[in-house]
Amino acid sequence: MSDVSIGIGTSGIQAGITRVERVAKDIASADQFNDLDSNVNLAESLIELKTAQNEVKANTKVVEAAIKNQESIIDIMV
Question: For the purposes of burial, counting CB atoms within 10 Å of the CB of 75, is it exposed (0-12), middle (13-18) or buried (19 or more)?
Fold first, then answer.
């Protein structure tokens, strides 16, 4: 069960990092000074960036919990 949790958490972390990279690229390429509509897109991108950050943090906690679970099982067995 812990191995599955670690796999799921790791996949979630990777998905979050991929999302951060994509949004960061969008933000870097935004031309907010010449296009009024891009300010809205910039705001949406910043919100998505924060969401991706939370995604990575949450999945990191899944991996940490799975590792602690494995450590507890090892302690019980020893």
Answer: exposed
Interatomic CA distance for residues 58 and 75, integer angstroms: 26
Cβ neighbours of residue 15 closer than 8 Å, sequence gap 6 or more: 55
Output the pTM of the full model.
0.78
pLDDT (tens digit per residue) in 15-68: 999 999 999 988 888 765 665 555 557 888 999 999 999 999 999 999 999 999
What is residue 36's predicted lDDT score, i.e. its pLDDT? 56
Q: Which residue has the tokens 């509509």?
A: 37
Provide, for the chain, the percentages of residues in helix, strand and coil under a 3-state DSSP scheme, each rounded to the nearest 5. 90, 0, 10
Cα–Cα distance measured from residue 18 to residue 13, given in angstroms and rounded to the nearest whole number? 9
